[in-house]
Amino acid sequence: MEKHALLIDYKYCTGCHSCELACRQEKQIASQDEWGIKLAEFGPEKLAGEWYWNYVAVPSSLCDLCESRLEEGKKPACVHHCLAKCMEAVPLTEVPVRLAELGDGVAVFVP
Amino acid sequence: MTMDKEWRVEEGDLIRTRTCGWSPPGCHPVGCGMFIYTDKDGNFVKVEGDPDHPITQGRLCPRCLAMGEFLNHPDRIKYPMKRAKADRGKDKWERISWDEALDILETEVRKIWETYGPEAIYVSKGTGREATEYAPPMAQAVFKTPNNAFMMSGASCYGPRTVIGDFLLGAGYPELDYAAFFPDRYDDPRYEVPKYIILWGKSPLQSNPDGFFGHAIIDLMKRGSKLIVIDPRLTWLASRAEFHLQLRPGTDAAIGLAMLNVVIGEDLYDHAFCDEWVFGLDELAERVADKTPEWAEPITWVPADVIRGAARAFAMNAPSSIMWGLAIDTQQNGAQAGQALLALGAICGYMDVPGGITLALPSSFMGRWTYETLQFVGEEVEKKRIDGEEDHPAYAVGPYAHPDSVLTTLETEDPYAFHMFYFYASNPIAPTCYAEPERWYNAIVKMDFNAAQDCFMTPTIMGLCDLVLPVSFFPEHDGFVLPHFGRNTHFLGAMNAAVDPGEARSDLEIDMIVGKRLNPEAWPWDTVEEFFDAQIHTQYDWGFNDLREFGAFQQPFEYRKYEKGMLRPDGEPGFNTPTGLIEVSSSIYDDFGEDPLPYFMEPAMSPYSTPDLYEDYPLVMTTGGRSFVSFHSEHRQIPSLRAIHPDPLVTINPKTAAKYGINDGDYVLIENPLGKCVERARVTNEVPERVIHAEHGWWFPEDDPEAPNLNGVWKSNVNRLIPMYKVGVTGYGAPYKNVLCRISKADGYEAGAADPALYEPRASRGPESMTNGPSQPASYEVIHPE
């Protein structure tokens, strides 16, 4: 199976925490001290006169991008449930094309 | 997009049941599509979003994704329980059978019926949950009392907007057009993307209000919609808006008047639409002629050019749309703010056009049945409803008791005494609902008998009740999801039980069980399926089992229904108002003692109405902003959700925090002449320097549950700072989001602790007591001079 990257079009990430809960359920992470993906928040601050307020979800070492789900043709649990539909799992070779399509404000993780 | 006919299938070792979510635990009737997986023994395994659901398309919010944690929570109420009246406030509950519970309830209700009359029973209902449909029938068709309501002061949630809508618009609930009626959604050829969306006092991402799927806003932003956000808070959406009108809380009507001044004054409105479908434009034009953005700036703290720019952008970019939020309800001046907002959408020609504001003839489903159960009360008893008729005739034409008048009646026993409270999906002493909560608590604790139905033990039940019935979670019962409660319902969703509820039952099942004991003629159905069939058959020739196979049934929809006779029960073109037109000047408000045109009035407690008070309490406090991980007072005991948001937060601007020596995370004492509470500081630019935002709905399930502590329900209770009975002329609207306060650093939550037994009520119980400032124009005080 081809290795995938997690793309987050974070200009649309609303900080809803669905990815965190979806991951917790899928990976059966019971301890609140552990996580498979976690939101980081930046702002709100005025940068050059414009508001800057972004969330980005960062996968942890427990993340395998739901390899078993990908093999079944499903999306990773976080991607599947993302309320803003701003996450996707993309084969590494297709990342540059997809990044070009999504424009500014995108993060790439290869967990 | 189509959904499979099979709603329950085997998938490997598991059983997969499709359902549409509602409550409990709490949410609005969004009807999110999901699959619930159970094992061969019926145990819950996991939940997964249904990618074929037309609205949510696989997405789920964190509250549903924590389903396993609430289904198996040790604190849930699993069976009926009783407690001696003398032990109210003590954790001395005793498990009993359903039969015994029903015997107790029946005996107590019949005793009150015979001794005092059914009107002495009060049903205090919660918000948004399935209870919205099923609590009024419990009052009217089971207990036969006309006295029930959602109990915010001024009924300040949804009711004001729907009633303003009924009076002026006559067309259900006006909702942003997000192509929700169309199977192909945004790709439907009839649809257009709104150019601008005004989010007025609304944060739909977190609140999913009344059945609107909040993240549809993101869907539309991706498709090009721009935002105009009218909100005292810099929400995340406001940070991405073209225009953010960061107004002083409670001045929405002034914003609305100024926007109308621009749109009418600069001749930016839709003349063709107004000529045919709008009543009272000339009078409105005259009213707003001097309400310039420059007039509004010192009132609202919003720069005139921002108001003017937003008004122009909205009016000059067709189609555009407006969503109105709870902030319209939570102010005395809300009826006027709502009137201005509806007028703005109407005169720009955005009503029921593609990409505008969808309208509807309220449907014949449960929404109507819910209110028609009033027939079981009987005319004589109905007249005894405590609805403030003399003071607020506009309110009394509605379906509910008037919460402020009810509190006065509780305390004065005039015109009669209440003897029983029934809490239906509601934890009102936790600060979601009752303002001045200690007054309510002290009045209700005197009742002969109190009971509740709920899924978790709450401070309200622990403090006040003698009997509690266990309510099943939505994955455990069959149900019928009705977005917007039937007032503008894009689809009907089938809720299918997937997990064994044990002894718990759904709200509807409890209505039926108790109803068959107390008033069987109102409850002819033997199963919920029979009931749902009867509801669906009022409009369609198929039934509940068909709905299970449809999954989500999107109702037929047409634009410009007013041209086609589809908004009036009589089938005539136009709107369901007295004039048949959208009334920007009301033809009926005069009968209610209300100004037919929108006007601005200062909040009762504000920098300008109470300047002396403002010297001691120099901050404006707004409340009620929602979090993704809770529904008002719910979900506080769900570990994964609480870990994300462990503490009640008061949002303070960095400059203000520095002035008071408060750092991020500090405990903060918030106080005003009415009361105090403690929350923890979130120091951020989300609020301007003169405003703080304090969260509502907080209690601490991990704290001592017994009275007076009651899980710490008084410590962070922001509604202790909110007055009862500061409502508008219509009886609607109260200042939950606009009072004054001061802040100081505290050592911990204990600084907010209280014992209701030591509570000293204000000298006056009535509506004239809160402020030391002048009376407001057209306020209760003017109508009732001392």
**What name does the CATH topology of chain A carry?**
Alpha-Beta Plaits
Separation of the first and last Cα atoms of chain A: 15 Å
Q: How much strand of chain A? A: 25-35%
Query: Numbering strands along the chain, what is their spatial order in the largest sheet of chain B?
Result: 6-5-18-17-16-7-8
SSE run of chain A? EHEEHHEHE
* Main CATH class of the largest domain in chain B: Alpha Beta
Structural class, judged by helices and strands of chain B? Answer: alpha/beta
Task: Tell me what the CATH architecture of the largest domain in chain B is.
Answer: 3-Layer(aba) Sandwich
Protein name (chain B): Molybdopterin-dependent oxidoreductase
Cofactor (chain B): Mo-bis(molybdopterin guanine dinucleotide)
Region (Disordered) (chain B): 759-786
Biased composition (Polar residues) (chain B): 769-778
Please describe what this structure looks like.
Chain B: Pfam families: Molybdop_Fe4S4 (PF04879), Molybdopterin (PF00384), Molydop_binding (PF01568). The complex is a heterodimer of chains A (111) and B (786). Chain A is built from four helices and five strands. By secondary structure, chain A is α+β, with helices and mostly antiparallel strands. Chain A has one domain: Alpha-Beta Plaits, CATH 3.30.70.20. Chain B folds into three domains: 81-156 and 364-475 and 483-489 and 503-527, Rossmann fold; 174-359, Dimethylsulfoxide Reductase, domain 2 (3-Layer(aba) Sandwich); 611-783, Barwin-like endoglucanases (Beta Barrel), CATH 2.40.40. Chain B is built from 28 helices and 28 strands. Chain B has a seven-stranded mixed β-sheet. In chain B, helix 3 packs across helix 22, helix 9 packs antiparallel against helix 12 (293-300) and helix 9 (252-265) runs parallel beside helix 15 (334-347). Chain B is globular. The interface between A and B is medium-sized, with 30 and 35 residues.
